[in-house]
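Students often ask why inverse folding is considered easier than folding. One informal answer: many sequences map to the same fold, so there is more than one right answer. In these notes we will look at a single instance of the problem. The structure comes first.
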């Protein structure tokens, strides 16, 4: 029987309060299962402090609702990663994440919620197998910015490269709007509308899922040739 792995290993530098917040998340996860009673559950939540409550807001139904929202399945709140925290320089902390069945989505959401000083940040992951079988290998990357989390798989890269051959070198899509004074302006996820040189390039799937920002002129998607940016 073949063993399949979803592996990742990386480190990120954060502030001491951010490291304490991530440590509080590790403390909270067992409490979620151990404190089914409403009063005990609320007491366990309150013990984690105001910083935890600010990062993971409670609801009337469940004080841990904000934390559970970072997991793909709220019924299985596991980070699926080994986490270690060590002293960095100038009072910072270095947090290492690793695992053979790595929780890509929950760890990305955790960093988005708890490690604002480290953003923008990204990490890579790999799909592997202990047997050389067809289509059992791949991987991807996660990019985390102030505006959210974006995922990119090796399958996406291969598909886009093949599509580019049939679309005369299409690199992707940029979001453009017309400005009365400057002509076309192009969307950058971190900075808003600006120059083409700094535009964020979206895949076709990312463009379809993207919620267009409000502008004076209705933004439109434009195909971006591979050699343009």
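Output (designed amino acids):
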């Amino acid at each position: 029987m073949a063993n399949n792995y979803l592996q990742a290993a990386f480190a990120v530098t954060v502030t001491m309060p951010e490291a304490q917040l991530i440590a509080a998340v590790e403390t909270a996860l067992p409490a979620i299962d151990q404190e089914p009673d409403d009063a005990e559950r609320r007491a366990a939540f309150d013990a984690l402090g105001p910083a935890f409550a600010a990062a993971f807001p409670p609801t009337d139904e469940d004080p841990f609702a904000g934390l559970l929202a970072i997991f793909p399945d709220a019924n299985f709140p596991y980070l699926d990663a080994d986490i270690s925290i060590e002293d960095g320089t100038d009072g910072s902390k270095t947090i290492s994440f690793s695992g053979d069945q790595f929780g890509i989505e929950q760890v990305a959401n955790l960093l988005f919620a708890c490690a604002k000083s480290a953003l923008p940040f990204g990490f890579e992951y790999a799909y592997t197998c202990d047997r050389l079988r067809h289509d059992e290998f791949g991987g991807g990357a996660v990019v985390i910015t102030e505006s959210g989390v974006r995922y990119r798989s090796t399958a996406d890269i291969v598909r886009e490269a093949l599509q580019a051959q049939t679309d005369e070198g299409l690199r992707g899509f940029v979001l453009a709007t017309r400005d009365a004074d400057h002509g076309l302006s192009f969307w950058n996820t971190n900075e808003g509308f600006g120059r083409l040189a700094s535009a964020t390039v979206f895949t076709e799937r990312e463009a379809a899922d993207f919620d267009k920002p409000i502008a004076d002129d209705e933004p439109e998607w434009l195909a971006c040739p591979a050699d343009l940016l």
